Amino acid sequence: MDLSTIVLAQEAAPQGGIMSFLPFIVIFAAMYFLIIAPQRKKQKQHQKMITELKSGAEVVTSGGIYGTITNVKDDRFILKVAENTKIEVSKAAVASVVTAAE
Known about the structure:
By secondary structure, this protein is α+β, with helices and mostly antiparallel strands. It contains 2 helices and 5 strands. The protein has helices at 3-12, 18-52, and strands at residues 58-61, 66-72, 76-82, 85-90, 94-97. The chain has a 5-stranded antiparallel beta sheet with strand order 4-3-2-1-5, with helices on one face. The longest helix has 35 residues, at 18-52. The protein is rod-shaped. The model has no long low-confidence stretch (mean pLDDT 85).
């Protein structure tokens, strides 16, 4: 290589700065709006649903167990799943509320 080729190669190289980080910034913004923000919204809706549950509500657990809430404790629900059969489940284990349409 001659000296002029080396000088041209150095001049053509990017100078750094904010432009070198721009792809990472764009990828992070896309990840936030496509993955993180919707998940946070879903988590807030689930937490709101759990705080509004009261005795008598029919629910489905994340394990697929259908039951009726008979008692609400600080960190768990007592579910009646059959006649004379009650179980305790974590509040986080409740996946959804069963509506009359289902």
